[in-house]
Design brief:
Order of helices and strands: HEEEHHEHHEHHEHEHHEHEH
Structural class: alpha/beta
Helix content: 40-55%
Distance between the termini: 71 Å
Radius of gyration: 20 Å
Low-confidence stretches: 1-11
Bound molecules: ligand C2E, calcium ion
Protein name: EAL domain-containing protein
Amino acid sequence: AARNGEDGVRQYAPAMGQVFLRRFQLVTQFRQALDSGQVEVHYQPKVSLPERQVVGAEALVRWSHPEYGRLDPDEFIPVVEATGLVDALTSFVMECALVKVRKWLDRGLRMSVAVNLSVRNLADESFPDRVAEALGRHDIPPELLTFELTESSVMEDPERSMPVLRRLHALGVVLAVDDFGTGYSSLAYLRQLPVDEVKIDKSFVLGMGTDLGDMAVVRSIVELGHSLELVVVAEGVEDDAARDQLVAMGCDIAQGYLISRPLSEDRLEAWLQARTV
Ligand code: C2E
Ligand code: CA
Ligand code: CA
Ligand code: CA
């Protein structure tokens, strides 16, 4: 029995070591990855319901790692968030996004881009000034930039994040609560946040076709959002049935594989072109 235990330890130790090694590598390599073009922003279109006009896109980061291949943001974002590097990531994504919006404006297209924020951005009192500077430098109307934030990122330290949110809101950028329904999600709490938009978490939207409970959650978030005069966005829209249900419920905007997967900049342009002809 003792030997089995020993074997167990021997098998376990290298695996844990590898996990830590990889996390450590990701942290140390991320700065250089940003500077050397390994990190790219992809864009997933958002369309209005029911008319299916393209209203904008969400910026989603991608890392092509020289050794590990394409890394999923769910793997490296938490690692990056644990360090000060998330400021550099957010600045990078915001910069790409604003360059994109500027290119669209120059072609007469009014479309917005949504950038995901992490808890550290909301604790950073200099962040709103950096946003104002970037909007001015690119000459972008603030309403064409959306920030998506989760409830848990706000609730981690509300005393620090609320003033930052209020200043962002005062700039005129759009604030959206992401992954709604998964966190605290209290009505009272949503009312206190200076937000314009609520994004229904994809787990509920994906479950709508098979689970009446998920359907009820989606319907009540649409109603709650509208009663607070918020724009309601559904993510994870994968099929026509889900889309039709969302239209019937009065949901305002849809995002998901039915409309398009997240696309590289080139592929997004081709996709937009194909829709307008
Ligand atoms: P999120 O903000 O909830 O982003 C939506 C995720 O759902 C994306 O995953 C997207 O590819 C995926 N998705 C979109 N439509 C569908 C669909 O129809 N079905 C399904 N099953 N999934 C769909 P992705 O790109 O892997 O990003 C994962 C998470 O990483 C994001 O979740 C966000 O929390 C985080 N993230 C991504 N980019 C950034 C960034 O630039 N900064 C920060 N702080 N976080 C980011
Ligand atoms: Ca998001
Ligand atoms: Ca989400
Ligand atoms: Ca998420």
